[in-house]
Amino acid sequence: MLAAVVPAKNEEKRIAQVLRSLRSLGPDIILPVVNGCTDGTLDEIQALGWPEIKVVYFRESLGIDVPRAVGAKTARDLGAECVLFVDGDMVGDLAPALQDLVEAVGSGAALALTNCYPSFASLSHLSRLVLAFRYRLNRSCGLADKIGVASPSHGPLAVSREFLLRVPLQTLAIPPVALVTAHLYGLPIKVAATIPHAKLKSAIKDDQHAQLVADTIIGDCLEALCIYQGKPPSRSYCGREFLGYHPQRRWDLLADYLEEGKDWRSF
User: Fold this and answer.
1) pLDDT per residue over 104-121, tens digit each?
2) In this structure, what are the phi and psi dihedrals at residue 151, rounded to the nearest 5 degrees?
């Protein structure tokens, strides 16, 4: 069974296009995680009327990346053998790359990633900084030769059922931690697709958002490196703590969903 998880927070006028692209792959189930939306995202999903759509609905915002863990739990419980993750604002022509991710899992990868930076030309200082921390983590874990600067923080990815059963699902709420944990468990990891960042066609937001996302990813990489090295988790580097959106992650809601087994709500 192929399941597609689509985190969506205020993706009106985008979410239907993303779901149509996903449907071309023929997934058995599509799980939009409607995450504290205040616009017409849910109405746009409902209007499609597809039987394979099962909405996972949260009135409150879960925070960045947490919807992935929620969707993974739902997909696992439904018996998915492969789970594809695509953010609800990625309206680019992604279908061929998504198929590559699914095929990589079918061929034995437990975690299949997308390379969103095949070239480093014309990158901003902020992007280069984030990539430096991603590379530092991957190199320290012995993964750089295999995956370069690729990270589950960026771009579509896919995971196997073995990943779902062995890796604690809450790690998906801090994607670099999921990467490190899968590696520590000896699970096969590979880059299976290439989509230059611009071709994702994600929603364009302001500079403040870009800085907060960068700080989130850097802090996540620092935390993941601590876990790999067996140290207490820390998001600090050279006297600065990289928090970004991390404090907005709703660990309480995630724990409730994972541990108490609350069911998804279908519309």
Assistant:
1) 999 999 999 999 999 888
2) -150, 145
Is 265 part of a structural domain of the chain? no
In the chain, the amino acid numbered 201 is K
Distance CA 58, CA 44 (A): 16
Residue 33's closest CA among 50, 51, 12, 57? 57
Identify the CA nearest to 37 among candidates 9, 71, 11. Answer: 9
| Reported confidence tier of residue 261, pLDDT bands at 50, 70, 90 | very low
Mean pLDDT of the chain: 95
DSSP run (H or E) holding 240: strand 240-241
Q: What is the CATH number of the domain that holds 217?
A: 3.90.550.10
Residue range 20-28: mean pLDDT, rounded: 95
Asked if the structure places residue 53 within a domain, the reply is yes
Helix/strand/coil for 2: strand
* pLDDT the model gives residue 204: 82
